[in-house]
Specification:
Blueprint (H helix, E strand, L loop, with lengths): L5 H21 L2 H17 L6 H28 L2 H42 L20 H17 L8 H9 L1 H4 L7 H4 L11 H34 L6 H33 L16 H7 L2 H15 L7 H16 L3 H19 L9 H21 L3 H11 L2 H10 L1 H4 L1 H9 L1 E2 L9 E5 H29 L3 H17 L14
Parallel strand pairs: 1-2
Helix pairs in contact: 1-2, 2-6, 3-4, 3-5, 3-6, 4-5, 9-10, 9-20, 9-21, 10-15, 12-13, 13-14, 14-15, 15-16
Length: 513
């Protein structure tokens, strides 16, 4: 089930009402939380009930594994000594990691690595191994990368002794399957979310309205901004050879904001709906396009993933230890690229971000607090946008083609400017960006996306940036307005969302990860 669907607009109010009724009637967590677990499993199983077995396997495996790790720690340390206890704990943790990552590998990466192996064998002249057989037609379970990382983070935390193993299977199962953040995060940490399922929260008007405001803003980002931009972005990236450099550049710019509106929109809906139910999820975005370095960008973008990779991969590899920092960064971001998708263009995207940060460290770049911060911010935005080409393109060759075509942009724009007296401003803009014409009978590669749509898109992008600029301050300001203007804003926001409902694409981009 997806957030921007009529099914969810029925599911969430019903689940919320029944949940609060149970909390008021039972006054203790178990009954209401059993209902919340069943609702979460229904939410996930609505998409494909067969894959419920996978997530329940991960739940039971990591829950039992963590209990065994803790038991080994207590018993063997006394009987056999610390060294034997550590070996036993590592064995159990290794088994938990192998089985979970094995499932992830099978569904997400087997085809990629098998195809890579056969291609490499062909290049080395081993002709008997070059024929790549028909790829396995396996449907990727929604959210498998997210809930696998969250479950593994729990097991590693127990191994390290930073949290205690959870005895109550209900609480742990809710920690992994909680429906607001199940499919696309945030990737929650044990110490933050798991204890919240041990208490029950009654209805609180201020908390509920605050959550609904954030969820509505998330819907605006997804439905009004991201899905509108997707119409143009999909057309350009599906056939990059059919468009001039100016249209490709606009497609890259629009995707930069499409993916942000799409993914941060999901996170806002997740955080907002969880808050309505009484649970606090982690902040996943902090105005990333106002960053002044690539390192700063990753402190603001998909914070839960970058934090997970830092704590469970980068630091164990050696972190920023002298002589190893650059290599460790590249390994971490290579894994980040692969986590996003089993394709070489994702790997290159990850490595680009790693290389950008290595370069920043090598050059000793520091974030400026003076006028130079605007130059740093602009450069960071350009680098992030260019890297998004490799994220969005269908193949690595497409990404390289688009990147090379962008080098022709200055000369191409100069040609359009010289032709302005003959073609006129409107026709020049329409031609440069391949926008559909408003006149009847005029064809265009993107007929459904004309100058009006482009203008509205830019206005909504500006609204997105203004919302980021004000962030929490803006939400607090809205909540303090008097009744009439406050509800007028709410109605305007909701009306705009429904006016644009089901435009373009409907699935969230990160559902495929």
């Amino acid at each position: 089930m997806v957030f921007n669907s009529w099914q969810f607009l029925v599911f969430f109010p019903v689940v919320t009402a029944l949940y609060f009724m149970l909390t008021m009637k039972l006054h203790t967590p178990p009954g209401s939380h059993v209902f919340l677990l069943l609702a979460s499993l229904f939410f996930y199983g609505y998409w494909n009930p067969w894959y419920l077995g996978l997530i329940l396997f991960s739940v039971v495996l990591t829950w039992a594994g963590a209990l065994l790790i803790e038991k080994i720690e207590k018993i063997e340390r006394i009987v056999k000594g610390a060294e034997k206890a550590e070996a036993g704990k590592k064995l159990v943790l290794g088994l938990v990691l192998t089985l979970n990552l094995g499932v992830l590998f099978w569904f997400k990466y087997f085809n990629f690595f098998a195809e890579t192996w056969y291609t490499l064998a062909g290049l080395l002249g081993r002709t008997g191994e070059t024929a790549w057989k028909k790829p396995l037609e396996v449907l990727l379970p929604a959210g498998i990368s997210f809930y696998t990382f969250q479950a593994l983070g729990y097991a590693i935390d127990v191994y390290r002794g930073s949290v205690q193993a959870e005895r109550n299977l209900l609480h742990y199962a809710l920690f992994v399957t909680f429906f607001p953040q199940l499919v696309a995060g945030p990737i929650e940490r044990t110490a933050h979310l798991l204890p919240q399922f041990k208490v029950t929260q009654g209805f609180d008007y201020d908390r509920v309205t605050s959550g609904l405001r954030q969820a509505a803003w998330g819907m605006f980002k997804k439905v009004v901004v991201a899905d509108r931009l997707a119409v143009y972005v999909n057309a350009v990236f599906d056939a990059p050879g059919a468009y001039p450099a100016s249209a490709l550049a606009l497609g890259v710019l629009f995707f930069t904001f499409q993916i942000y509106g799409d993914f941060s929109g999901y996170s806002d809906i997740a955080v907002g709906t969880a808050r309505v139910l009484g649970f606090n999820l982690s902040v996943n975005f902090r105005a990333p396009y106002f960053s002044r370095s690539i390192q700063d960008f990753w402190r603001r973008w998909h914070i839960s993933l970058s934090g997970w990779l830092k704590d469970y991969l980068y630091i164990p590899l050696g972190g920023s230890r002298k002589g190893c920092a650059g290599v460790n960064l590249l390994i971490t971001f290579l894994v980040s690229g692969l986590w996003h998708g089993a394709a070489w263009h994702f790997v290159v995207w990850g490595l680009l971000h790693g290389l950008f940060q290595v370069a920043e460290r090598a050059l000793g770049i520091r974030e400026s607090s003076g006028p130079g911060k605007y130059l740093q911010g602009g450069l960071t935005f350009v680098l992030v946008s260019l890297a998004w080409i490799f994220f969005r393109a269908h193949t690595l060759s497409d990404a390289l083609f688009i990147s090379s075509r962008l080098a022709e942009l200055p000369a191409e724009l100069a040609g359009y400017i010289r032709a302005l007296p003959q073609t006129g401003l409107v026709n020049s803009v329409r031609q440069a960006f391949q926008l559909g014409a408003s006149q009847h009978g005029v064809t265009s590669p993107i007929p459904q996306f004309g100058i009006t749509q482009a203008g509205l898109s830019l206005i909504f992008i500006a609204a997105l940036l203004v919302g980021d600029w004000f962030n929490q301050t803006g939400r607090v300001w809205v909540s303090r307005l008097s009744l009439v203007p406050r509800w007028a804003l709410y109605y305007a926001l909701v009306f705009t969302v429904f006016l644009n409902w089901n435009r373009g694409t409907s699935l969230f981009i990160y559902f495929t990860f």
